[in-house]
């Protein structure tokens, strides 16, 4: 792939993203709708960049501020199309006078395009020394796509569905909306395009007729139907997401990940999973998550931006965010790791345990029904069932609980932070600990048991009617 990239010249991409996306019926600009977790415009930007685009220009309009915020950090140049007067006008808005070399134009709402799709088009464009190329594909149901009209096999025109005759509508080769052109070709013809069509818009597709009339070298490059897939409705958005999830599962399977039911497995592109790991149905993994090898994720596990080591067992229904779980840990079922939690190797966090901002040492255990927040727990510690760190005080500040190594915490203990418990200390069950506990000490802080003998007096039998 790299060698392919080296062979073709660098090019400039112009991504059209000013449209309103009315059919999405959503207040969010269309190109910001997420496909498998990523705003779709970022997929297109990434595809262009990995295919070798040295400059990416994005034409924005509708929802300008929001779109700008999302794409600004992707090293693109933003251009504004004040009024959406059509695709030709959109391209003109990208300051075409300053363009040089090869230019690729694509739509911001085609999120399934990959660099591997784009590279052959650039190569073919150069090989045939074309002035203008339109990328086409064949579709079973071409719906509203512009139809590719050929005369004796040669490209003759693109006719928009709305302007097409019944016969033209039968053509199943369509315009994918991707074009490659020499910068000079764009500079020459774009200003000549008129808006004489049913929509009264300046159609980019009209550039073809102008170039053909001038006997420029014009070609159709046939691509995969995937590149034509555009998102216009919420239904198409979910189709795109399903496609990306499916593709991700396939690529993980090829690397030795065991996926029990690909249809109900949701793993974003950015996620890494090591070979030999097992993924049960209903697992959702997002963001910059990395999962090691031979790790098992049981049903309905949700993981966001986390690092999970090798040979970890995440049991059913666990929810993990921005945390780190070292190798051989055992988490869940139904555990919650909130941001900034770090589990040392072989730690065990069991059912209905919530950890927030916790450094939890190697081989330590919190088996059941526990809340630890803003805490550091040493190695080989046992946290009994029902333990709570009372980290949030009436002054609305958070305080820390520091627990040393090999501490034994009996069940139903409350630590009222700030607190420090030394190594090897023992906390008696049911204690409310409010003062520091020295190393090796026993701390018990609970009401004393009182026994009143014969408290319940023998009662005479009653004559109850049944
Ligand atoms: C366009 C093509 C059609 C092709 C189809 C592929 C034209 C006239 N038609 O039709 O042949 O089959 O794409 O998807 O080009 N945009 C702007 N500013 C505008 C208008 C559009 O930025 O003033 C952007 C949109 O946000 C979108 C892209 O250009 O990303 C395509 O526009 P759209 O209106 O969806 O064109 P189609 O009708 O799909
Ligand atoms: Mg469209």
Could you give the topology of this structure?
Elements: H1 2-7, E1 11-17, E2 34-35, E3 38-39, H2 40-51, E4 53-60, H3 64-71, E5 77-80, H4 87-92, E6 102-107, H5 115-127, E7 132-138, E8 147-151, E9 154-159, H6 166-169, E10 173-182, H7 183-189, H8 207-213, E11 218-222, H9 234-254, E12 258-259, E13 266-267, E14 272-273, E15 278-279, E16 284-286, E17 290-291, E18 296-297, E19 302-304, E20 307-308, E21 313-314, E22 319-321, E23 324-325, E24 330-331, E25 336-337, E26 342-343, E27 348-360, E28 365-377, E29 382-383, E30 388-390, E31 401-403, E32 408-409, E33 414-416, E34 419-421, E35 426-427, E36 432-433, E37 442-443
Helix pairs in contact: 2-5
The structure holds uridine-diphosphate-N-acetylglucosamine (UD1) and magnesium ion (MG).
Magnesium ion (MG) is lined by residues 230, 232.
How many domains? The number is: 2
Outline, from the CA principal axes? elongated
CATH-assigned fold name of the largest domain: Spore Coat Polysaccharide Biosynthesis Protein SpsA, Chain A
Task: Find the count of extended strands (DSSP E, 2+ residues).
Answer: 37
Name the helicity range.
10-25%
Radius of gyration: 32 Å
CATH homologous superfamily classification of the largest domain: Spore Coat Polysaccharide Biosynthesis Protein SpsA, Chain A
Ranges where pLDDT stays below 50 over 5 or more residues in a row are: 1-6
CATH architecture identity of the largest domain: Alpha-Beta Complex
Largest sheet: 23 strands, parallel
Bound molecules: uridine-diphosphate-N-acetylglucosamine, magnesium ion
């Amino acid at each position: 792939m790299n060698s392919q990239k080296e062979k073709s010249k660098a090019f400039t991409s112009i991504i059209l993203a000013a449209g309103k996306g009315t059919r999405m019926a959503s207040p969010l600009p269309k190109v910001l709708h997420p496909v498998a977790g990523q705003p779709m415009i970022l997929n297109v930007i990434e595809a262009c960049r990995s295919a070798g685009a040295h400059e990416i220009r994005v034409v924005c309009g509708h929802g300008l501020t929001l779109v700008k915020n999302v794409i600004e950090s992707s090293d693109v140049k933003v251009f504004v199309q004040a009024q959406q007067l059509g695709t030709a006008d959109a391209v003109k808005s990208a300051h075409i006078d300053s363009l040089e070399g090869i230019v690729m134009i694509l739509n911001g709402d085609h999120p399934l395009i990959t660099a591997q799709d784009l590279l052959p088009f650039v190569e073919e464009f150069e090989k045939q020394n074309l002035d203008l190329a339109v990328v086409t594909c064949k579709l079973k149901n071409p719906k509203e796509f512009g139809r590719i009209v050929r005369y004796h096999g040669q490209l003759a025109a693109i006719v928009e569905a709305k302007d097409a005759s019944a016969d033209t509508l039968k053509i199943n080769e369509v315009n994918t909306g991707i074009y490659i052109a020499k910068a000079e070709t764009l500079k020459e013809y774009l200003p000549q395009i008129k808006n004489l069509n049913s929509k009264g818009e300046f159609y980019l597709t009209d550039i073809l007729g102008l170039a053909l009339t001038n006997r420029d070298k014009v070609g159709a490059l046939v691509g995969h139907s995937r590149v034509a897939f555009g998102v216009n409705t919420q239904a198409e958005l979910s189709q795109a997401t399903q496609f990306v999830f499916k593709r991700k599962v396939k690529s993980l399977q090829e690397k030795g990940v065991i996926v029990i039911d690909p249809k109900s497995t949701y793993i974003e592109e950015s996620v890494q999973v090591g070979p030999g790991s097992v993924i049960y149905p209903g697992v959702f993994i997002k963001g910059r998550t990395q999962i090691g090898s031979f790790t098992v994720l049981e049903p309905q596990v949700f993981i966001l931006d986390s690092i999970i080591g090798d040979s970890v067992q995440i049991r059913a229904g666990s929810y993990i965010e921005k945390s780190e779980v070292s190798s051989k840990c055992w988490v869940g079922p139904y555990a919650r790791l909130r941001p900034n939690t770090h589990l040392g190797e072989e730690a065990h966090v069991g059912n209905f345990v919530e950890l927030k901002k916790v450094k939890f040492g190697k081989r330590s255990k919190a088996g059941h029904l526990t809340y630890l927040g803003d805490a550091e727990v040493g190695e080989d510690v046992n946290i009994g069932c029902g333990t709570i760190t009372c980290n949030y005080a009436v002054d609305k500040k958070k305080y820390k609980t520091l627990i040393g190594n090999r501490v034994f915490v009996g069940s139903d203990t409350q630590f009222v932070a700030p607190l420090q418990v030394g190594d090897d200390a023992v906390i008696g069950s049911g204690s409310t600990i409010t003062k520091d506990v020295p190393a090796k000490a026993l701390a018990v802080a609970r009401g004393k048991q009182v026994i009143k003998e014969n408290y319940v007096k023998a009662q005479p039998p009653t004559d109850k009617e049944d």
